[in-house]
Write the structure tokens for this entry.
Amino acid sequence: MNRDVKILLERIQPLFKRMSQTRYWIRVVNDQFDEQYNFFFHSQHRGMREKSVPLHSIKNYRLEYLEKVISLFKENLNLSIYYAGFKGLRWPSTNKRIQWK
Amino acid sequence: MDYSHEPNGVFFLIDNKSFYASVEATMRGFNPLTVPLVVMSEQANTNGGLILATSPMAKKLFGLKANVSRQRNLPQDPRLVVVPPRMNLYIERNLEINDIFRRFVADEDLVPYSIDESILDMTHSWRLFGNSPIEVAKLIQKTVHDELGLYLTVGIGDNPVQSKLALDIYAKHTPDFIGEIHYSTVPEKIWSIENLTDVWGIGNRTAKRLNNLKIYTMKDLAAASPFLLKEKLGIIGTQLYATAWGIDRTNLHKRIKPREASIGNSQVLPRDYRSQEEIETVIKEIGEQVASRLRHHHKVAGVLSLGIGFSYAASEEDGRGGFGHSLKIDPTNDNREIVAHLIKMFEDNWQGQTIRNIAVYTSKLSSMSGRQLNIFMDPRQQIKKQESDRVVDQIRDKFGFKSLVYARSTTKGGTAINRASLVGGHNGGNAYE
């Protein structure tokens, strides 16, 4: 498997506890300052503080590569993914918008 | 007041607005000024969590003030984002920021003051970048914001202390995050400070001592007799008097050489320790850490101090918070000798209290110029012991502390392995990266 995907899945495992009344999601950030993509694991129990734990940064700063990582990731884990910093950018293969809000 | 003979230049004291929180916000694609975010350390010894940094919005929404406070004082509010610290990342960012500063000043005119503050002596270079110091300050702010997404606050003064006060008192509350104090504005800007503890260098204790002299504001301080201040507060009294008048004769180019008076380490334990064996495990670990630092500095210590802090309940019962003892020893940096002395000091003084803090300090350091052999022991044995410490140090330098640990550190109570990956007691990086 792709090394970056493997790291992501490994690090999510101890965090993704699947507790009741808890929302889990992934935040992917286009980090223009460091020219990399940052991945965070977010979780929030109802009515409680949101937690955000850094997972990994992908140094290969190309959308084609990110698209590949995301699709491999989705094959293995069905977690919602939210994107930040991608306004106006589109996925290279489908030409769909990456970030919706 | 005649300021004509005082040093007069253009000084910037620049700090990062809520540095750790801002770095974490930018990494997540949040605006550092608008996201309610706190950086919380959840190490075993933080008793549920220690807040290391709070974003400006979190401060505003929840009235959080001092940075270091407890998790239990933080409301459970779904708007808050809690993130773990990454100390190595902050160090890296700080270096990047200082590199940007170096585009505006010569190396010798830049003095990094802390993890998020630097002093820039702009006297000789500000004209290269704008028509006024304020314009240059704004340019520096913009550069750092464009390249790193971080917001800077800038205090401007004719000398370092003025810029520090301008930063602490004014820059943090103005819309452009810039504050200014000059010799000409000392009365309106410094004497108007009503709360003494707002001033750099005045804490609660100093404020109390000043109050005893009927000094309650900076204006009172400026009007006080410098001779009385010196008599009552010593050299600090004179210094505070100068601060009140906005005077600072520091030469930033003259780097102060620390006396290297002592090397030591301390830690708060993750829970109350009761058993002698567990306590001595940690004393041994800290002792070895200190000994290793001595060896890295090529020093030997002539005095060894052990400080033990009792648990809350034990100190209530005992009436003391703990005990501390110092011992004069034959100068050494040998693991076994140092640990043996520490354990003996502990056993001589400990009466079964539960404990929560352990500190080991060494002083009367001298440079290591060969080893004094003990005539009552086999010299080969002594040299062998020294060699083994050296080899362990080398292996750890190369492969990390955890590559080689004493078996005892894996027993119940040991903290060295867990602490090895921490920076200043907090999570150093992405834990993995």
